[in-house]
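Action item from last meeting closed. Structure (211 res):
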């Protein structure tokens, strides 16, 4: 009876783990692209509206969907400020993503707010033709547009890439992106061990029952 209960518990844990991982957005962090572990604060400067925050040369993106994610805080911002990611594809041109939505992780920066997540996603269909692999940008830049008075602080900016059928906006702020591939590998190993233990117990029990 004990072994039967143990096998059932192992299978239940395995099933629960698979459900959990299926709900996790399978974001993959681009290693080496991380900014502002220590928060960076910018104040409005007369005559200067655009502030260059980061330049990412050759970001080594291998997917057609990617995003810059981080956290932002602001105080007494007048007008509509926003973050912008510029995607430089060389001869094909420079394309941008602006955070100008009324609210949410792509929301504009206006008034005051405590720390909130932000995301600047980009979707390219360059790899959709003739089975070609996606061609990533040669350079990314992150800018802050601050048209009037106010203070903006930014931290923990990282670059992620996604499978073509995933939505970067689906998991913003949920904290389940697993940017460290070692964590994901450890979970896969744990699930495999649970399955093996349950299988061994069930086989053993089946043989004893038939003898």
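Sequence:
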């Amino acid at each position: 009876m004990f072994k039967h209960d143990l096998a059932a518990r192992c299978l239940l844990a395995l099933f629960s783990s698979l459900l959990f991982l299926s709900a996790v957005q399978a974001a993959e962090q681009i290693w080496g692209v991380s900014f502002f572990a220590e928060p960076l604060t910018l104040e409005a400067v007369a005559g200067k509206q655009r502030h260059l925050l980061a330049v990412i040369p050759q970001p080594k993106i291998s997917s057609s969907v990617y995003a810059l994610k981080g956290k932002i805080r602001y105080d007494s911002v007048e007008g509509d400020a926003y973050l912008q990611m510029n995607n430089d594809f060389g001869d094909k041109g420079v394309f941008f993503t602006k955070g100008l939505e009324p609210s949410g992780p792509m929301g504009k920066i206006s008034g005051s707010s405590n720390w909130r997540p932000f995301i600047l996603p980009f979707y390219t269909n360059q790899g959709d033709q003739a089975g070609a692999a996606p061609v990533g940008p040669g350079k990314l830049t992150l800018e802050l547009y601050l048209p009037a008075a106010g203070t903006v602080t930014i931290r923990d900016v990282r670059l992620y890439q996604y499978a073509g059928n995933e939505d970067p906006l689906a998991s913003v702020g949920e904290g389940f992106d697993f940017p460290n591939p070692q964590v994901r590998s450890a979970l896969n190993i744990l699930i495999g061990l649970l399955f093996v233990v349950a299988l061994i117990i069930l086989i053993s029990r089946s043989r004893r029952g038939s003898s």
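Note appended to the action item: The longest strand covers residues 65-88.
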